[in-house]
Structures are given as structure tokens and as C-alpha cells.
Amino acid sequence: MAQYNITIDSELLHQLFLSDSKDSGVSKLLESVLNQVLQAQATEQLRAEAYERTEERRGYRNGTYPHRLTTRVGSLVLRVPRLRNGKFSTELFSRYQRSEQAFILALMEMVVNGVSTRKVSEITEELCGVRISKSLVSELCRRLDPVIEAWRDRSLKDKEYPFLIVDALVIRVREENRVLHRSMLICVGVNREGIREVLGFVVGDSESEESWGDFFGWLKDRGLRGVDLVVSDDHKGLVKALRRNFQGSSWQRCQTHFIRNILSASPKGLQGELKTRIQAILHAPDMGTARMLLMRVLEEYEEKAPKAMRILEEGFDDAVAILSLPEKYRKRLRTTNSVERLNEEIRRRERVIRIFPSRESAVRLLGAVLLEIDNKWAGGRKYLDMDEYYEYLSQQQSRSSPKIYCL
Q1: What is the pTM of this model?
Q2: Secretion signal: which residues (predicted)?
Q3: Residue 404 located in a structural domain
């Protein structure tokens, strides 16, 4: 390991012990030491001191250029030697970069975890004595882009995803000097091993059939296959896109939204008892029982709440599609509630930012949130035990296969 002779100015040393300028003194001391190290390294590489004549000299100095470092003790301005042959090198910056990288990662993690760029700027001033601008914090966060894009565009060909849960959130984005409402479309899948994955998300213009269709097409282009059941709310554009892109799959209408739609069309005095009766229908042990309970409710409330009964009757088949599956899978697949954690995390970040400065920034920040949750799911417990499901499928196939009789 190289050793260097460092000199310290007495005035600088005196400043180090002044109570009112302690931090400034440490900063100046470190700056002085590092600049002397750089000059000593230049001497080593040239094999000669400044203005020294020797047969071993390998080149000549050509002045210096400033290089600013932001450290925990403040901002340092280093005078990096220039050599005429342009070959000066130092490990000083590569060593610092490891520390700087940890510092930058901490800044990015603060933003991802819901700290505003303004607050991050204030924190860096407290820690380092230098205020990092909000624009610089945003620029640092752009380093997340390659990671997020690689995860978003990953191939889905290696697995099958029998169950999908899709949902959308409305966020505000600044575009063309206006604040516009944009739809964030999210798809969560449960793979053959019973592990949940965030399969994809996009920030689109709306929740139209075209937007959902493009989203599902993108997922299929990446290899999405083996879909048996899709859970979502009753948004018309979404449902049309599902039926067009996942023919042969069942659609389970979110029961939470379904109950909400019925009650909103019911007289207030009937909402409590109707909710109990509707839940009994939706939680019935089999399709026959559910239909029997449906007929009783329709008969009893047809005149009291005609609009609500019309919604109930028209949406019944889609709301109880889950009854075709074994009972152990119904609780977690009867609603879109399983993506509520995603929604909560996204809303928590959104409340801090309020308005995303661009669509790219929304993808960056919300993508980092979803990537983090996806990693937790991958390393956690199974969401569903799939053994009984595949046993059920096997039984269904054996019943539907044609029988051949020999005479």
C-alpha cells in the first residue's frame, strides 16, 4: 500500500478545533489531504516531482481540473492533475464511487419509499452540508429505468398463469403543460406453483377497450398463457377486452364491486338486509343453492327494489363463476381485494407526489414499488396451494372425455 507524506497548515488545524466551524474544518482538512494525495500519485506516475529533471521522467504535468465530490462532511473541490500524455489515473474516485453509490441508492430508496424530492434535498443538506437539487434527485432516480424496464419486459413463457386479477387506478400526470388523469392498468397472476406475480403494468390514456386490449396483447406477446380464470370489476371496456383476448377462460366479476353496485341502487332502508341476503347467495356452497337463494331474493324484493334486483339478476352468473372451482380457492379469487395492498402502496406514494411530472416518472416510481412487492411475493409463502386445483382439472377432463363401448 502506498504511503504519502501529508502536510497540514496550522491555520487549517486551528479551524478544525473551533466549535462554530467544526464541520467546515473537517471538510477543508479532507480536501487538503486528498489534493496532496492526487499530487503524490501524479509524481509516482511521472517518476518526477514538479519541475524536477531526471532520466526516469515519463511525462509532464499540464495543470489541473476541478472535480467536485459531495461527502458526508460537505462538498469538496479536488484539483485533479492533468498529464500531457493524458494517462493520469487514480483509484481514489473508484473507491469513493462505492461510497457514493451507496449514498445514491439511499437517496433513490427514500424517493421510492414515499419521501418527496424536496424533502430528500433538505435531508442531504443536513447530512452533507450541500443541498442537492430536486432535479438532481430526479436525475439520480432515472438510474432505476433499466432495472424496471428489464423487469416489466421479462418473458412469461416459462410458466403458466391459471388465475389473473386485473385492476386499474387513476393517477394525475403533467403532460403538455396540463394536468391530465391517466389510468394505470395492473395485472397480477398466480402461477402453477401458487405464487403471485405482478405480470405487468402500463400507464395508459384511459380504461377503454382499446387500452385494455393493447395491455393484454402486450402480456400475451411476452408469453402469457394457461389462463383459466380472470377476476376484475365490471368496467365495460375491460370486460370486452377480456372476452376478446382470453376466449375459453372464465370471468369472475369482483363480488365486492358487485354488492356495491346493487346497494347503490337500493333504498337506504333495505341496504342492510339486502347485503346479508346477497352475501348468502355469493357464498353458497354450490351453484344450485346459489340459484335457489337468488330466486327467493328476486321474488321478495322485486317490487321493493326493482333496479337493484335487475342488477343482481343480470350479473348473477358472472359473480358466481368462482363456484365452479373447489371451495378452498373461492375466498381469494372472488374479488380483486388481493391487489388492495398494491393499491395502498401506490396511493401512499401518489399522495406525496400528488402530480407526476411526466408519464415516465410515474412508470419509474410506481414500477419500483411494484418490483419491490413482486420480489417479496417471490420469496414469501405460496398464495394458493395448487394441488387440489390440478386434481380438479384432471377429474373434469376425465368426465368430459368420450367413452368408447365395445359390442
Answers
A1: 0.70
A2: none
A3: no
